[in-house]
Design brief:
Elements (H helix, E strand, L loop, with lengths): L7 H4 L2 H11 L1 E10 L12 E2 L2 E3 L29 E4 L3 E2 L5 E11 L1 H7 L6 H13 L10 H4 L23 H18 L3 H13 L4 E6 L3 H8 L6 H12 L4 E3 L10 H4 L10 E5 L2 H6 L1 H16 L9 E10 L5 E11 L12 E6 L5 E2 L9 E3 L6 E9 L3 E3 L12 H7 L2 H6 L4 H25 L13 H10 L2 H7 L3
Antiparallel strand pairs: 1-6, 2-5, 3-4, 7-8, 7-9, 10-11, 10-16, 11-12, 12-15, 13-15, 14-15
Length: 490
């Protein structure tokens, strides 16, 4: 099922996402400085005693440089002197000074600090570089497409395009993962750089069902720039780069769906525009950073807990229903569905039994593309997509449970009479005779009730629907024989 809830990541500004990413890599150190003991007597006569705290980032080497970072990663001032992150007050004299001071310091992880520390630039440039660095992460790029895999083309010899693997619209997201593994294996075989070769081999070995395939979802501002045909502007390129590196800009795809199902939503198969996909392991880190992935997993778990194939209640059960393809000459296909009983209005005794089928796996169609045969639709109306639910006659559905409970009568008026079915069956009556007898009794009781209500000036109760053969059959299979025998006088 596609994640349909609106993500917080969509509403949050870029500054909020950068701030959230910084918080994930920042920790607090609670420091308490009590006292010093047995200092040298020569230092304790007339000197001031003070404690200073200095910070070193061990990811920096001797010759590495960054603003505010000196040799070997020590935090320094502009003049190059070591910069204290905290210092106590001066205590004059004595060899056992007491401070009893405490502070709370915030530090970023070494690798994160190294990534975001950049050389000075303009004020706006520093902010843009900082945002991009905060959201940055390393990755391998693999390209698919006919122009890339064509034999003899110049691009087919470029890294990431040498695999010769094609992806079709009719393939599922799950099969794409398998083909991506194959593409990584072929790229590794053709790669000469040992480091990149090892990365490709590791990807080919580790890609599994735990990895999520995600599609890039641009923000409204980026879509607006695209509609204005400003793709070559600095603002568009800068914003695109930052959003591409943002975890919350990537929407997970359902592994059982094909790319054709998502064509209307994300533009797969467009002749002039390619689509970006990202494959990442569904780790706890991804759940924290990507709101879309977290909501997608919650939706998947909800369906898993539901146990749809074991569904069999008085109101709905699992089964199969006929799905008509309007764009394929009206061809019919039996599809998985949750089937609900449709109650007919009282007095409509001649109407055949009907069911409402909600298809579990159905293409997402653009609004207005579904024929009038669809009686209702459910789904993300805000996104302009419909998932089909149809009301069908009994011969257009097939109930999966051996004894579907929705086949029993749902009318309270029937329950007392259906309890007699076992006794009548023991007396040798056929199912049709039982139906006839019970309907006669049902109608007789309704006529008496109607007469009393008319005598009292009340609006009489509509006639209940008749008991059917399937109601009797269900009562014989699931009813309690002892109740039926007690219901009839001896």
């Amino acid at each position: 099922a596609v994640c349909r809830a609106k993500c917080r990541g969509e509403e949050a500004s870029l500054e909020d996402r950068v701030k959230q990413e910084e918080m994930l890599h920042t920790g607090k150190l609670h420091l308490k400085i009590s006292k010093a003991e047995t200092l040298r007597a020569a230092d304790g006569r007339a000197n001031d005693t003070q404690v200073r705290v200095f910070v070193r980032n061990e990811t920096f080497g001797k010759n590495d440089s960054a603003p505010g970072i000196g040799a070997y990663g020590w935090h320094v001032t502009r003049s190059g002197a070591h910069e204290p992150s905290f210092q106590t007050a001066n205590v004059r004299g004595g060899t056992n000074p007491v401070w009893n001071e405490q502070c709370e310091l915030q530090f970023a992880t070494g690798a994160f600090e190294r990534r975001v520390r950049k050389h000075p630039a303009g004020r706006r440039g520093r902010r843009e570089e900082h945002e991009a660095a905060v959201l940055d992460r390393s990755e391998l790029r693999i390209s698919f497409g006919n122009e890339d895999s064509a034999a003899g083309s110049s691009r087919s010899r470029e890294p990431g395009r040498r695999h010769g693997v094609d992806i079709l619209l009719g393939e599922t997201v799950h099969s794409f993962r398998n083909k991506l593994r194959l593409a990584c294996e072929r790229e590794a075989a053709a790669e000469e750089d040992p480091a990149r070769k090892a990365q490709l081999q590791a990807c080919a070995e580790q890609i599994s069902s735990r990895h999520a395939v995600m599609v890039f979802v641009p923000s409204p501002k980026l879509r607006e720039l695209h509609q204005q045909q400003r793709e070559k502007s600095h603002e568009y390129r800068k914003l695109y780069k930052i959003e591409e590196q943002d975890h919350s800009s990537w929407q997970p795809l359902d592994p059982i769906r094909t790319f054709n199902h998502y064509a209307a939503m994300y533009g797969f198969g467009h002749p002039q525009m390619s689509q970006r996909l990202r494959v990442a392991e569904g780790s706890e880190e991804l759940r924290v950073r990507n709101n879309r992935f977290r909501l997608f997993e919650q939706e998947q778990q909800r369906w898993a807990r539901r146990g749809v194939e074991a569904q069999n209640t008085e109101t709905e059960c699992y089964g199969y229903a006929q799905f008509t393809h309007p764009q394929d000459g009206g061809s019919v296909e039996w599809r998985h569905a949750l089937i609900e009983r449709v109650e007919h209005p009282a007095g409509d005794s001649g109407a055949p039994r009907r069911f409402r089928a909600s298809f579990l796996y159905t293409p997402l169609l653009a609004s207005g593309a579904e024929p009038a045969a669809a009686s209702s639709s459910v789904g993300p109306e805000a996104s302009g997509l419909d998932t089909i639910a149809r009301e069908l006659p009994e011969d257009h559905v097939l109930l999966a449970p051996p004894n579907p409970r929705i086949m029993g009568s749902g009318h309270l008026e029937h329950q007392e009479f259906l309890a007699k079915a076992w006794q009548l069956h023991d007396e040798g009556l056929s199912e049709k005779d039982i139906v006839q007898m019970l309907n006669d009794e049902l109608r007789e009781r309704w006529l008496k009730t109607k007469e009393v209500e008319e005598h009292e000036g009340k609006t009489h109760t509509p006639a209940p629907p008749p008991i059917t053969v399937s109601d009797v059959q269900f009562a014989l299979r699931h009813g309690d024989p002892s109740l039926g025998r007690e219901a009839l006088p001896s």
